[in-house]
Amino acid sequence: MTPYGRMAAHLLAGLALLASSAAGTAATKSVAAGKGMPPAGDPYPSTYKRYPGEPTAIVGATVFDGTGAEITSGTVLLRDGRIVAVGDARLAVPDGYRRIDGTGKFVTPGVIDIHSHLGVYASPGVSAHSDGNEATSPTTPQVWAEHSVWPQDPGFSRALANGGVTAMQILPGSANLIGGRSVVLKNVYARTVQGMKFPGAPQGMKMACGENPKRVYGERNTLPSTRMGNFAVDRQEWIKAGEYRKKRADGKLDERDLAMETMADVLDGKILVQNHCYRADEMALVIDMAKEFGYKVTAFHHAVEAYKIGDLLKENSICSAIWADWWGFKMEAFDGIPENAALLADAGACVIIHSDDANGIQRLNQEAAKARAAGRRMGIDISDGQVIRWITLNPATALGIDKQTGSLAAGKMGDAVLWNGNPLSVYARPEKVWVDGALLFDSADPKRRPVSDFELGLPGEGDVK
């Protein structure tokens, strides 16, 4: 049997992949940029096909639906890859459904990590797997993270089994002011990155503020070496992007420029800006720059000082993707506080808990709980349901996939997690995880979990540690 055959046997315990699915999407069509040139669009569309599932009813569990609501003794129905219905104990279970007793347990939407480098900084963490930063120029919008993603990264299966993560955004690193395009993935085993790509998800563009770009290029004695250099380089690129966009719209391009193509698509609203930025003053400056050139920041990532400008972030509908309590590892992280998330939520701003870490992605539920606890200690009490939203619907919204996933609602993708206890408890862990209605992890079934080909044949084959 081939390695891929062994993988499928481990994951599906003898089940075959679906032969077809409506989940795949066609490439985006667009007008050619110039005479004789191919259309821009997406030349690498998703080929994702959901794994087979069975009609399933999870009954008797406490349900956090991702919107902030909580249902005691709830029922969740999954069928044909979708959520059929969510309700209380009065919701009838149709014939033909497998019933799973959730008494004393909890159900949430699948966890979503908006900031991950799995696949581009894959495990084991050796230099051969360091593919996240194209640190050869301060601006590299022409590169795409998906062209570095290694689907065999064992971190994907650990995120699924230990963290209940069903979708994630893979970003380039932060060495560059403009690091390139991101990709949103379904957390499933596939032989190719296209087989993992979330169908219909917008691409993102990674930008970075502050210390990282000025350090990387300042050490080379080139622009930028200061924060004012950072902004000067960014603004010059946006000027060029605006000119390219106009020529493209007028059909006057002589040749395609992959870098400017990305930038122009951001200006057209097709690509979402995901901006690494720590300090409040820099976030405010970036908001001004976005208004100057006509683009929008979707989320500030890391954002340890976001609590200082919660009102400004709310006013501009910008999410803060943050850690619970990482701080102080460099000067721009010095003013990070554990109450960051709670203060943002109290200001009515969008809060997301992210990982940026192969271990942290396995414990986003615990990170969210820590952030809530810090708020409670200062008198800000946030409900369990709202905290769950920080790792489900809010990241889905910032990724542009909230119509498809992020909450338990009829018609959405059947991405769900059954936890053995309250997910905001340090003792809780996923018991079962469904992706598009397919049971891809079951803690009671060692074969019902993905195993990377990279790990097959190694000691402890199939173990999730």
Description:
The protein has 465 residues and is α/β, with parallel strands linked by helices. The chain has one domain: Metal-dependent hydrolases (TIM Barrel, Alpha-Beta Barrel), CATH 3.20.20. It is built from 11 helices and 16 strands. Strands 1, 2, 3, 4, 5, 14, 15 and 16 form an 8-stranded mixed β-sheet that branches. An 8-stranded mixed β-sheet has the order 6-7-8-9-10-11-12-13. Helix 7 links the parallel strand 11 and strand 12. Helix 4 crosses helix 5 and helix 8 packs across helix 9. The N terminus is likely disordered.
Provide a concise account of the structure shown.
The protein has a single domain (3-455), classed as Alpha-Beta Barrel (TIM Barrel). Helix content is 24%, strand content 20%. It has eleven helices and 16 strands.
Q: Any idea what the shape is?
A: globular
Number of domains: 1
Q: Briefly note the CATH topology name.
A: TIM Barrel
Q: Estimate the strand proportion.
A: 15-25%
Which spans have pLDDT < 50 for at least 5 consecutive residues? 1-38
Examine the secondary-structure arrangement and name the CATH architecture.
Alpha-Beta Barrel
Q: How many β-strand stretches? A: 16
Give the helix tally: 11
Helices and strands: which structural class? alpha/beta
